[in-house]
């Protein structure tokens, strides 16, 4: 079965196509295409993501990304003649995309020129994320699903980040999870992205319990905000990682020691806003000459990165030990951080706990993870009205949510 997945939750427009089959305990998943159109250059100028600007970019990107994805999957077939679409259908497509009129025009042009691809369903991220961005992807998915007469599968973006750890060369681990769950479960999942820092207990596929989360900023947000203080570019995570790597201690290096908020507290919650404030105070108290120096930026970047890693590792390992977890699964943009990956690997090896982490290219937002998550989603619908953006969707809400 072929599935086309769409993710527009934040500042990346992504569409993927996968071919999968699922029979009792056998599961196969082959990724045919995964195109991500990053808006980072646009948001760099502003030092962060502006939802209305991001929505506008999704509008521009969706049809070209769809064309590219179908082409990569070898499913793009031009019609012999341009098809005339009847007025009723045009009206309906325009209705689905009434808040995205330029996108409607582009999509209609595409549908007139290209045949229906051999796809059985459409998956789309419904939340969490930026509301206007989510709606653009949802409306687009409804319009193409309606025209091609396909069901839509609503997907939780966070569930996608968990599944991202099983994409590519890790797909065999998912096969183990299905055929021999006791080998890997229960698992503790850590989601660390620009909008989320959550610890989730996974008892089986589809059964998740949120056990802790950030009370203020997310870890990625902390990377982004502290990078900005240091005059580094957006997104802050990769910029801080680069500076931290450059640091090499010398005899008269300054020393910086940042606080590790909540690290000693007996719970699985996080707090990163105090860390950002500590960086700002330290920065402001330095003479101009120091704070502008490369050495200062490098030592500070190294300390920020290590502080975030220490907090994430401490809470995750505690949660894993207390729940007798057999695995730790990580996902989200921050898991692209090399130091974080290395340090987690080392400690989990010592603790004899399996470590399942995404290939770096699947750490940040992508639609491949949405396609994989959709394979395990029961709800499929042609009643498109039912599908709505859920910007604050979390795991605990899910059990009460008819969508899941
Ligand atoms: O998962 P993601 O692509 O989007 C959201 O769902 O938020 O995560 C983006 C976040 C940003 O805050 C970015 O700074 C962070 O992931 N990030 C990193 C790295 N690459 C991206 N943080 C630390 N180190 C990295 N190498
Ligand atoms: Zn994400």
What can you tell me about this protein's structure?
The longest helix has 29 residues, at 294-322. The protein has helices at 40-44, 51-72, 87-96, 101-113, 131-148, 157-164, 171-179, 219-229, 236-246, 273-285, 288-291, 294-322, 338-350, 368-374, 395-398; strands at residues 2-7, 12-23, 26-38, 121-127, 152-156, 187-192, 197-204, 207-213, 327-331, 354-356. It has 15 helices and ten strands. Helix 5 links the parallel strand 4 (121-127) and strand 5 (152-156). Helix 3 (87-96) packs across helix 4 (101-113), helix 8 (219-229) packs across helix 9 and helix 8 packs parallel to helix 10 (273-285). With 404 residues, it is an alpha/beta fold. 44% of the residues lie in helices and 18% in strands. Strands 3-2-1-4-5 form a five-stranded mixed β-sheet, sandwiched between helices. The protein folds into two domains: 2-161 and 365-386, ATPase, nucleotide binding domain (Nucleotidyltransferase, domain 5, 2-Layer Sandwich); 180-357, ATPase, nucleotide binding domain (Nucleotidyltransferase, domain 5). It binds 5'-O-[(R)-(carboxyoxy)(hydroxy)phosphoryl]adenosine and zinc ion. Zinc ion is lined by residues 157, 161, 193, 332, 365.
């Amino acid at each position: 079965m072929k599935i086309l997945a769409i993710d527009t939750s934040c500042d990346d427009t992504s569409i993927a196509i996968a071919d999968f089959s699922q029979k009792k305990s056998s599961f196969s998943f082959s990724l045919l295409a995964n195109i991500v159109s990053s808006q980072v250059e646009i948001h760099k100028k502003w030092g962060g993501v502006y939802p209305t600007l991001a929505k506008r970019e999704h509008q521009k990107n969706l049809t070209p990304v769809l064309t590219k994805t179908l082409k990569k999957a070898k499913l793009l077939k031009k019609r012999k003649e341009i098809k005339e679409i009847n007025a009723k259908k045009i009206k309906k497509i325009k209705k689905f995309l009434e808040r995205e009129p330029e996108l409607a025009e582009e999509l209609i042009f595409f549908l007139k020129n290209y045949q229906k691809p051999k796809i059985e369903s459409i998956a789309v991220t419904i939340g969490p994320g930026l509301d206007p961005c989510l709606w653009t992807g949802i409306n687009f998915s409804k319009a193409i699903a309606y025209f091609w007469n396909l069901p839509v599968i609503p997907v939780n973006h966070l569930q996608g980040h968990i599944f991202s750890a099983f994409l590519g060369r890790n797909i065999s681990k998912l096969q183990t999870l299905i055929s021999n769950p006791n080998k890997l479960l229960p698992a503790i999942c850590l989601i660390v992205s620009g909008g989320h820092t959550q610890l989730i207990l996974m008892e089986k596929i589809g059964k998740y319990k949120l056990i802790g989360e950030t009370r203020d900023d997310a870890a990625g947000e902390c990377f982004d905000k502290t990078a900005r203080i240091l005059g580094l570019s957006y997104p802050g995570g990769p910029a801080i990682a680069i500076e931290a790597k450059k640091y090499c201690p010398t005899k008269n290096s300054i020393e910086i020691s940042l606080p590790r908020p909540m690290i000693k507290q007996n719970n699985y919650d996080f707090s990163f806003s105090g860390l950002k404030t500590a960086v700002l105070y330290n920065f402001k108290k330095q003479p101009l000459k120091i704070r502008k120096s490369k050495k200062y930026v490098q030592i500070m970047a190294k300390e920020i990165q290590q502080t975030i890693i220490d907090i994430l590792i401490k809470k995750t390992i505690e949660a894993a030990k207390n729940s007798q977890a057999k695995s730790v699964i990580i996902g989200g943009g921050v898991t692209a951080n090399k130091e974080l990956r290395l340090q987690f690997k080392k400690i989990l090896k010592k603790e004899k706990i399996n470590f399942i982490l995404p290939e770096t290219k699947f750490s940040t937002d992508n639609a491949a993870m949405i396609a994989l998550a959709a394979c395990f989603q029961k709800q499929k619908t042609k009643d498109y009205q039912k599908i709505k953006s859920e910007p604050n969707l979390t795991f605990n809400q899910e059990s009460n949510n008819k969508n899941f």
